[in-house]
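Troubleshooting entry. Yesterday's outputs looked truncated, so today I'm pasting the complete records for two proteins to confirm everything comes through intact. If either block looks cut off, that's the bug. Protein one:
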Amino acid sequence: MLLRAESVTKSFGPVKVLTKADLQINEGDSIGLIGVNGAGKSTFLRILLGDERCDTGEIIRNTERIGYLPQFADSSDATVREVLGRPYGHLEHIRRRMRELDSMMSSGGGHRLELRHLGVRRS
């Protein structure tokens, strides 16, 4: 179990948005929340992420790694792949660096590949 919500409730003034919401996410699960506008989907996700507090109930997190793509992602000049990869941006950075290194090694024309380019430190 990576994350569990038990009997989560949330109100904004007199309006109850969540009433005794329960959820468990296990390793390898991918989830999506579906519901009508105003049902509390975004609020529930913000509570699960720790960005907002619930009024009652309990959130149990056994991980700090949660990938989340906001409903309105800033994507002015980004591709769909880039937007979807944002929760895992470190992977895209690694891929980009591998392409750079591959290009440097395959060009062979006067470029000297040094250990520092590979992230290797000399002792």
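Protein two, checking that the full record survives here as well:
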Amino acid sequence: MAIKFQYNKTSLSEMGKQLKVRQNALPTLKNKESALRLEVRKAKAESGRLTSELDAALKRYDYLAALWNEFEPGLIAVMDVDLGTVKVAGVKTPQSNKRISNSSGNKKTQCHPTAKPERQAA
């Protein structure tokens, strides 16, 4: 895109107005950028933590690796991943909605391929 220069008072005042708008918006943009950078750092730290938890859990069950060959591969499947969005500095970012699946918890998820997932109101 070529820049078109005009040397008159009208175009000069128009360029001055555009410059003023951009200078007024700059602090807001800098704040948004720093907030998003902070969220990226938090997300990377959370990802690293979850990765280390997964590695630790896999190491705990390493001795059972030989048993996995005896099971049918389609016995367990992921039915649904519950994701939501959160606004950070005016930008929608994805975030996982944590769902607890245990025998004593209120929320349960079903993993069998033929079963329908339970939907409970929050």
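Both blocks look complete. Sanity check on protein two: Helices lie at 9-60.
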